Amino acid sequence: MSNAPFEPDPLMAEFAALKQRAEPPSDALLARVMADADAVQAQQAQSPLPEARGSALRRMIDVIGGWPSLAGMATAGIAGVWIGLTQPAALVQGSQVLLYGDANAALVDLDPGFGFSDLDGEL
Amino acid sequence: MTMPFDDTHAAPTEALLVLYANGDREASRVLTRRLLPLVLSHAERLLGNRAEAEEIAQEAMLRLWKIAPDWRHGEAKVTTWLYRVAGNLCTDLLRRRRGVGLDEVPEPVSEQASPADRMQEVARASALQSALARLPERQAQAVILRHIEELSNPEIAEIMDISVEAVESLIARGKRALSADLTGQREELGISE
Fold first, then answer.
1. What pTM does this model have?
2. How many CA within 13 A on the CB side of residue B96?
3. A35 lies within 8 A of chain B by CB
4. DSSP type of residue B98
5. Spatial separation of the C-alpha atoms in residues A96 and B66, rounded to whole Å
6. Are the beta carbons of A10 and B110 separated by less than 8 Å?
7. CB B54 within 8 A of CB A28
8. A34 vs B28: CB contact, 8 Å cut-off?
9. What does the pLDDT average to over B106-111?
10. DSSP state of A87
C-alpha cells in the first residue's frame, strides 16, 4: 500500500473559478424556450393521439413474457404434435404398461434361495 | 391537467415531462427553470461563447419538448439525455469553427471576493476556458462533465456513449494537457499556484 501523502488536484483552483462563472439564463432566453415549449405542445395537441403502444396481439405477447416466451411455447407445441404423430415405441410401450399392466413387470423375487430347480420333482 | 403549484415544483423531472406531454403548461415552466441553467452553462463551458451557448441550449430544450410524448421511463435520466444532446450539438459546432477565438465571454463578478482576488479568479477561469478550447473536443467534454458539472464517471460514460475506462482515460489525458498548458499561462498572468 502506498504511503504517499494526499496531493490536491493542481487544477482545483481553475475548476472552482470556472464553476463560479456560470451565469443564469437571461429572461429573453427563458422566454424563447418557454415559447418553444408552448408551440410544440400546441402542435402535439392538434395532431391525432397516437394509438396505445402496440396492438392487442403485442400486449398479449407482453403479458406472457415477450417473444422469448412465445418461442418457447411454439417449440413445446410443435414437439407435442410431433410426438402425437410419430408415436415413439418407448412411449407407446411405457404407456401400455402404465394403462394395462404387464406380468413381467410385476414379478418380484422375494426369496433368492428359491429356484426353478426346486420344482423339478413336482413338474 | 394541472397540479398544485408546490406539487409541480417538487415533482421529479421525468414526471414533469409526462405532465408536459399531457398538456400541462406549468410543467414546461418548471422544467425550463430547472434544466435550462444546466444545459446553458455546459454549452458555454464547451464553446466558450455565450451567444452560441444560448442557441445550443434553446435547440437542446426544443428537442426535449419534441421527444416528451415518446419519453420512455427508466431508459435514461432527462439530464443525462440533455447533456448528451447539448454535447453533440457543441461538438458539431466546434468542428465547424475550430480555431476561432473563444475569448468573448463576459466576466462575471463575485461579490464576496476582494478586487485582487476577483482579478485572479477571472484570470484563472479565462485561462482554463482558453486551455479547454485547445483540447480535443472529447477530452474537454469529459473534463468539464467530471470537474465542473461534477458528474460520476459512469454517468459521463452514458452521456458520451463510451466505457467508464475510456472516460477515465479521456479525463487523465485532458488534465495532463491542461496542466502543461496552464503552467506557462500562470506565469504569464501572474497567477499564484
1. 0.63
2. 8
3. no
4. T
5. 68
6. no
7. no
8. yes
9. 44
10. -
The CA-CA-CA angle for residues A28, A31, B74, to 5°, reads: 125
Q: Mind listing the pLDDT tens digit for each residue in A27-79?
A: 999 999 999 999 999 998 887 655 555 667 676 667 666 777 767 777 888 87
Task: Tell me the three cell numbers of residue B50.
Answer: 455565450
Listed in sequence order, the residues at least 6 apart from A26 whose beta carbon sits closer than 8 Å to its beta carbon are: B54
Give the mean model confidence (pLDDT) for residues B103-120. Answer: 53
Contact A11 B69 (CB under 8 A): no
Q: Which residues of A touch B182 (CB under 8 A)?
A: 11, 14
- The pLDDT value recorded for residue B103 is 46
> In this predicted structure, what is the pLDDT of residue B192?
57
B15/A48 Cα distance (integer angstroms)? 23
Tell me which chain A residues have a C-beta less than 8 angstroms from the C-beta of B61. 33, 36-37
Nine cell digits for residue A120 = 423339478
- Considering only CB atoms, which chain B residues are within 8 Å of A21? 105, 108, 125, 129
ipTM of the prediction:
0.76
Q: What is the mean pLDDT of residues B151-167?
A: 94
Please list every residue in chain A whose beta carbon sits closer than 8 Å to the beta carbon of residue B127: 14
